[in-house]
Amino acid sequence: MRSRATFAALGLALIAGHSAAASASIVVGAKNFTEGAVLAEIMAQTIESQTDIEVVRRLNLAGTQVCFEALRAGEIDVYAEYTGTALRNLVGDEALHLSPAQVYATVSREVARRFGLTWLAPFGFENTYVMLVTAQTSARLQLTTMSDLHRHKLRYGISHEFLRRPDGMPGLRSAYRLDEDTTTGLAHDFSYQALADGAVDVIDGYSTDAKILRYGLVPLRDDRNFFPPYEAAPLIRSDLEQRAPGVTTALLLLAGRIDDSAMRRLNYQVEMERREPAAVAAEFLSDLGVKSDRQIQVSQRHGFLSLLYQRRWQTLELTRRHLALTIGAVALAAVIGIPLGVVASRRPTLARAALGLAATLQTIPSIALLAFMLPLFGIGVTPALVALLLYAILPILRNTVTGLRGIEERLVDVGRGLGMSDSEILRQVELPLAAPVLMAGIRTATVISVGTATLAAFIGAGGLGDPIVTGLATTDYALVLCGALPAAMLAIALDALLGVVEMWTTPRGLRAD
């Protein structure tokens, strides 16, 4: 607990202007797909219009488990969840042929009993899973139901979460006796393009996805009722009304107000018309008679450069946050890595152990390391800082050891002959001579951290990963570039700046002309 508090304090100190939410504020979370962002905005703007409570948004969180654990830990206060997802994934109920009312009653009771969370009334639409094929494949192979799939050896392109969910491929294989030629894990929104391009034959999707209309796809009927009803509803912390009176009353205004066609239309406006989720939500609420007080800046898009210019202030703020995350992590890594490298350079056994451990950490995929941080540090700045710190330690530690070991022994002997103590030799001889190699490690760690920090958006840490994640979810590649290009420029600028610092810290006698 002490380590968590320490890193949290460091993170808050490093992010200028970032302060803990006040007691009169709540946090609305969302999974990293279009519908999650739209529903989060609808809930947030409804709360803002009906109460004086400040609403903090934590969008693009990486999937059901991240959102649910964040809710249980108090990192967020509400997010939109689906009753079928809760039934299969959270409650572990495998019952079939349940009505929407039965599913809602089961998850309401069990989630309250096991986890102390509360379901509010559903929004009014159901977003069930569907298996999708192109119209040409459907006609050629006579595929109309999911039972028809087992008659053919097909190529499946399946979203990563669906691959491991009990109500996903594991259960589907058993229920429908699928005969798979290949099964490839794909990002959900990329799978549609893969299907349209003929790279795969079958994908999973959501019944309210706008891309079903865009690509003219055929949803296969779930004739064995494998998928339970997936009604969307706000899932909240049970103490929310006590901490923020009026919030649940405000959210109940949305009960039964969003039907299937309305949700599909909202998704279409974001994904196909390239509108901001906040603007789409505000317009929808206005049609319902709920006036949003949120100031929405409507982008008039005419290409990537135009969008980049329109988002210039947002990009500047995201860059500031990204820079703070990067500098904070590298600074902490240097504070730990350089002293450890000095000690390890004198002890070969310690050097092997420390470098081996740091190298092992580097082999863990970035998103997996971030996921490992969640149970310990929750979501937000703290787990991102810890993950970036662990990635930055190896190049700093390795270059410190290499730089110190590369110093000629006779130079150290000269210092001893002049009567210098070991600490004086370290400060005045060894570290200055090792400075070029040591700074090269810091430069490498910084560039790595800039790139890795873009993934911190998946755990609510913000930065330039936000537009990248949002753009990937909506297949808006111009928006992806609005995050990727500044991130690349930031990495180049920091590397150049540290190159100057490297020159300043290198003894004059070692500098190239």
What does it look like?
- The protein is α/β, with parallel strands linked by helices and 513 residues long.
- The chain has three domains: 22-126 and 230-298, D-Maltodextrin-Binding Protein, domain 2 (3-Layer(aba) Sandwich); 129-220, 3-Layer(aba) Sandwich (D-Maltodextrin-Binding Protein, domain 2), CATH 3.40.190; 312-510, Orthogonal Bundle (MetI-like fold), CATH 1.10.3720.10.
- It has 23 helices and ten strands.
- The strands form three sheets. A five-stranded mixed β-sheet has the order 7-6-8-5-9. Strands 3-10-4 form a three-stranded antiparallel β-sheet. A two-stranded parallel ribbon has the order 1-2.
- Helix 2 (34-50) packs across helix 14, helix 16 packs antiparallel against helix 17 and helix 21 (422-453) packs antiparallel against helix 23 (477-505).
- Mean pLDDT is 85; it is low at 1-23.
**Total strands:** 10
Average pLDDT number: 85
**Main beta-sheet strand count, sense and barrel state:** 5 strands, mixed
Sheet-strand content, in percent, reads: 5-15%
The general outline is elongated
By DSSP (H or I, 4+ residues per run), the number of helices equals: 23
